[in-house]
Design brief:
By secondary structure, the chain is α+β, with helices and mostly antiparallel strands. The chain is built from 21 helices and 19 strands. The protein has 5 domains: 123 residues, no CATH class; 98 residues, no CATH class; 99 residues, no CATH class; 103 residues, OB fold (Dihydrolipoamide Acetyltransferase, E2P) (Beta Barrel), CATH 2.40.50; 115 residues, OB fold (Dihydrolipoamide Acetyltransferase, E2P). The longest helix has 18 residues. It comes from Paenibacillus sp. BIHB 4019.
Length: 573
């Protein structure tokens, strides 16, 4: 490029250097000082080269500029964009009409230079063309500057809705309205060098999120490319093979002839799976081990269907893990994780659905709180649990239910279970579990009636519930348990089933369809069972919703909801 062509190119660049553009690259104070010095009569002399211009201010400072702010030099000691660079650009843009005229006339003698001038105008002009790199079909070069943890967190945040505003002038600015943040992209094809007032890791997250949401707005689907960057499945193939062989042996032997020593073999393989970086395989083996222990002990809670589901799901997972053609993202999902990663969400509106206490055979007790996402229609949980197998360790359901929440010191967990909440900067994992870590703020809002809530896919009627039947094992499903909100007219009766040691509540809806709700007996909620048997409290409800968990084709109630009120059955009665 000749000096005349570059002068025209720089003139086009100077026109793009609006106040907003320069302030985003520097700050408002430096911009104002540059204007003030110009108004005091500062003078700038320009020496044009083929790819840059040397700008000498009357105080002796010399700046070397190109037609981009990504590259510049100044003889002053400042490490960041200084007022001298801004003065050189602003002073030239003020003189631009006369400068452009003279430069055009001096270059018109050469046809070759005219071509260069036209090319430079096309290169600098045209906002759409300058930002075409944002919509590049190949995503990999664009996300290369960001590390895996950044990409992983942004991939998670893309699940949630965000309101975008896009403005195009000297910069392409993407405003993430729910987060109250702006990211401005320049003509340089590097999203990591985008302009954002928020710095450090939070700024990097916003830059990548703004890029990907803008691409999604323009109809590009980057999910697969992002997953290939995030998921790198690594595990022990020998452990997978050994697990398959053990399941084969179990199926050949049959349940009736299976020796009790088989549970010890499952325990050994579970330890091997943990060492082989196969957390979900370990959980599957321990699940089968638990069901077999119920079978060998002739326990009433043993279920052949549950055992078959566990064996089927684990075997299919092992079979797929051996396939080289399975994408890394799918393998990562089958492998699972030992510890869940939590990611911060800017805002989350939740509606309390109740709480349920539980105890496992492995020696853990806890309470799980269920909440409905008003914006995305998903169920979120928070679990307060403790290991009680150590001597002296105990977990009182009543004490922890009456304790105060980790987010709002004045709110008890009992209130938390039945309120409408707005979280800001709350951390959530892949299974939509809430973290009690610091940094989140919680606000209580007036709880709306359950009748007014848009319950989405969570709502179900009795015929639909029966039609769904027993849920089949799903290898790539995000949902770990099947939950439903059922609108009921009344409780018509109850009975205690001695064979299963469960209280059975007989309910019906307005159409007369009937359903049995199963409440297994345990000493901790003996009072609840007796009150429901006697017809007190929740037993007399009419026109209400039942929040239930479906297992093996049966409905297990967690809570009853009526208007703005909520009763967690095992904790509130």
């Amino acid at each position: 490029m000749s000096a005349a062509a570059f002068e025209t190119s720089f003139g086009q660049f100077a026109k793009l250097c609006t106040e907003d553009y320069l302030v985003r690259y520097s700050n408002k104070g430096i911009y104002n000082r540059a204007l003030k010095d110009i108004s005091k009569g500062v003078d700038v002399k320009y020496a044009w080269g083929e790819t840059s211009v040397s700008c000498e201010l009357n105080d002796g400072t010399v700046c070397t500029l190109e037609n981009t702010l990504a590259r510049w030099k100044c003889t002053c000691p400042s490490d960041s964009l200084c007022k001298h660079v801004l003065i050189a650009i602003l002073f030239y843009s003020q003189q631009l009409p006369s400068t452009s005229t003279s430069s055009t006339s001096s270059s018109s003698s050469s046809a070759h230079e005219e071509g260069e001038l036209e090319g430079s105008k096309q290169q600098i002009g045209g906002t759409e063309e300058r930002f075409n790199w944002l919509l590049s079909a190949e995503l990999s070069p664009l996300i290369k500057p960001f590390n895996v943890s950044i990409v992983e967190e942004v991939l998670f945040r893309l699940r949630y809705p965000e309101e975008l505003e896009v403005a195009q002038n000297a910069l392409l600015t993407v405003c993430l309205k729910l987060q109250g943040a702006e990211v401005s992209f320049t003509e340089e094809a590097n999203p990591a060098k985008a302009l954002c007032k928020i710095k450090d890791r939070s700024g990097e997250l916003l830059k990548l999120e703004a890029l990907l949401r803008y691409r999604a707005l323009k109809g590009l689907d980057d999910q697969e490319a992002l997953r290939s960057k995030v998921y790198k499945a690594a595990f022990s193939p020998d452990t997978v093979r050994e697990c398959k062989e053990l399941i084969h042996a179990m199926l050949r032997t049959g349940l009736a002839r299976l020796p009790q020593s088989y549970t010890a073999q499952l325990e050994t393989l579970a330890v091997a799976a943990r060492s082989g970086q196969l957390p979900d395989v370990e959980r599957g083996l321990r699940g089968i081990q638990g069901e077999l222990e119920l079978f060998f002990n002739r326990h009433v809670r043993f279920s052949m269907q549950v055992l078959l589901d566990r064996v089927t799901k684990l075997y299919l997972a092992l079979e797929l893990l051996e396939r080289e053609t399975l994408p890394a993202a799918k393998k990562e999902q089958l492998i699972g994780a030992f510890r869940s990663k939590y990611y911060s969400l800017p805002k989350l509106r939740l509606y309390g659905l109740g709480a349920e206490p539980w105890e496992t055979r492995s020696g853990y007790r806890g309470i799980t709180y269920y909440m409905y996402g008003l914006d995305d229609g998903q169920v979120y949980t928070y679990t307060d649990a403790r290991a009680v197998y150590y001597e002296g360790n105990d977990f009182s359901f009543a004490k922890h239910y009456a304790g105060y929440s980790p987010w709002l010191a004045s709110m008890t967990m009992r209130q938390f279970a039945g309120e409408e909440l707005v979280f800001e900067h709350i951390k959530v994992n892949e299974e939509r579990r809430l973290s009690s870590g610091e940094g989140a703020s919680l606000t209580l809002v007036a709880r709306q009636s359950i009748n007014e809530v848009n319950k989405g896919k969570l709502a179900s009627d009795l015929p639909a519930l029966r039609q769904a039947g027993v849920e089949q094992p799903a290898l790539f499903s995000d949902v770990k348990e099947r939950l439903a909100l059922i609108k009921l007219a009344r409780i018509t009766g109850n009975r205690f089933d001695k064979s299963s040691q469960s209280l059975v509540l007989e309910v019906e809806d307005e159409a007369g369809e009937q359903l049995e709700l199963i409440l297994p007996y345990q000493a901790d909620w003996e009072k609840t069972v007796k009150r429901l048997e006697a017809g007190y409290g929740a037993a007399s409800l009419e026109q209400f919703y039942a929040f239930v968990r479906m297992e093996g084709g049966q409905a297990y109630p967690i809570s009853f909801l009526q208007n703005t009120k909520l009763i967690s059955l095992k904790l509130d009665m």
